[in-house]
Write a structure and sequence with these properties.
Layout: H1 23-57, H2 67-80, E1 82-85, E2 91-94, E3 103-104, E4 110-115, E5 121-126, E6 137-138, H3 147-157, H4 165-168, E7 180-181, E8 193-196, E9 206-208, E10 214-215, H5 217-235, H6 241-251, H7 260-272, H8 286-306, H9 314-336, H10 343-366, H11 374-397
Parallel strand pairs: 3-6
Antiparallel strand pairs: 1-2, 4-5, 7-8, 8-9, 9-10
Helix pairs in contact: 1-2, 5-7, 6-7, 7-8, 8-9, 9-10, 9-11, 10-11
Length: about 400
């Protein structure tokens, strides 16, 4: 939400209200206000009490008490904290002397966990095989943001700009996660794509890969901001299948199919195909069932490019695999529902079931490290339950 420029494009996004400010300045003001509140809280609930203790014990514990020290403490916490998610849904900010100094990249090779039973002791775990002398790397930003969003977030919260392989690659490992479509010139269509000439420069012009059309960084930023606003507004209020489909169709005129905005919308859509009233899995047409499967495969392929070892995207990938297997099982059941089914149809159905089983096993494996997370634990339970039911189904037809 920190990347919202609050102007309005009357051409593309007429539903967005005008607010005459920029997200960056607004966020800075919010952070400043929050810091003032924290400083006030520390003065009232910590320093004043500490002074009383020092007077009683005639011993000095803190050499400086002015607000400048407290602001510095707040700055250290804000820059170095690591987010700890509690089962209740609350989040804590933890500062760890060594772990907070670890190297960052947008495709990490490590992840960290916190043991609540041992005062939130941190463990840094390798997410893949690591070669001798290879750096240990974690990620301080959101893997499902585009390059410009990650860069602004890191600049604001961690005070550095990332120059990792993903950030320096305009296509982000071939995922096209930030790529826009070229609209051509004066009504002339173009099937090229727009990529930043310098992805590390947030003001960089964007060039088409097939025609001479250029778009300024300011224009791209403005357009994406309006899209961010509209996507966030929809996803924040229990969207319906129709609403998601409409916005996907709208944004698909401007964005690459793998763009992060479309990824988020499609990831929500695959979960509603099969659960929303009127879209129960057994009632989906074959074409809609195939569409859901295609979307799952598309999203899974994107995740494999961004996070090939599923170090950061465990729950996202787990959901994709879970939704994928629901389609495969339904496809198999439809073949078996035919009263005059042939042996070939039974064999094809079993192939669907076995593919679904492979996806459930993958999901169960990658969710093992998310069991302390409420969402991860619930998803893991659903995966294991489906696996048990599927094994029974397979045994009945084997």
């Amino acid at each position: 939400h920190w990347l919202r420029v609050t102007q309005v494009s009357e051409v593309f996004f007429q539903s967005i209200k005008t607010i005459n400010t920029t997200t960056l300045s607004l966020t800075r003001q919010m952070l400043s206000d929050a810091e003032k509140r924290v400083v006030s809280y520390l003065q009232r609930n910590f320093l004043q009490r500490l002074k009383s203790v020092e007077q009683k014990q005639m011993e000095k514990y803190l050499q400086e008490y002015d607000t400048a020290v407290l602001h510095r403490i707040c700055g250290i916490i804000e820059t170095n904290y690591m987010c700890i998610s509690l089962p209740s849904g609350m989040e804590l900010s933890g500062v760890y002397y060594t772990a907070c100094m670890m190297e960052h990249a947008c495709q990490p090779n490590c992840y960290f966990q916190f043991d609540q039973r041992k005062s939130f002791r941190i463990s840094v775990i390798a997410g893949r095989d690591i070669e001798r002398d290879e750096h240990l790397i974690i990620m301080y930003s959101n893997m499902l943001w585009g390059t410009q969003m990650r860069q602004e977030h890191l600049a604001m919260t961690k005070h550095f700009l990332c120059k990792c392989e993903r950030c320096t690659d305009p296509t982000e490992y071939g995922s096209n996660f930030s790529t826009m479509l070229c609209m051509g010139d004066e009504g002339e269509s173009c099937d090229g794509i727009h990529l930043p000439k310098d992805p590390l420069n947030m003001k960089s012009d964007w060039a088409c890969t097939k025609c001479p059309i250029m778009i300024s960084g300011e224009e791209v930023r403005y357009l994406l901001t309006q899209m961010t606003e509209e996507v966030d507004n929809l996803l924040s209020r229990k969207p319906t299948v129709k609403q998601l489909e409409a916005l996907i169709n709208k944004l698909s005129k401007f964005l690459h199919p793998h763009h992060y905005h479309l990824f988020n919308l499609k990831h929500t859509l695959i979960q509603l195909y099969g659960t929303e009233i009127g879209y129960a899995l057994k009632n989906l047409s074959d074409s809609l069932l195939n569409k859901k499967l295609h979307l799952c495969e598309e999203l899974y392929d994107i995740c494999q490019k961004l996070d090939p070892y599923t170090i950061r995207l465990s729950i996202y990938v787990g959901i994709i695999l879970f939704e994928m297997q629901t389609v495969q099982i339904e496809q198999g059941k439809r073949l078996l529902a035919n009263a005059s089914k042939s042996e070939e149809q039974v064999a094809t159905a079993l192939n669907y079931f076995n593919s679904a089983r492979e996806n459930l096993l993958k999901a169960a494996k990658i969710l093992e490290k998310e069991l302390d997370n409420v969402a991860g634990s619930k998803l893991s339970d659903a995966v294991l339950k489906s696996l048990t039911e599927l094994d029974t189904l397979i045994n009945n037809y084997s």
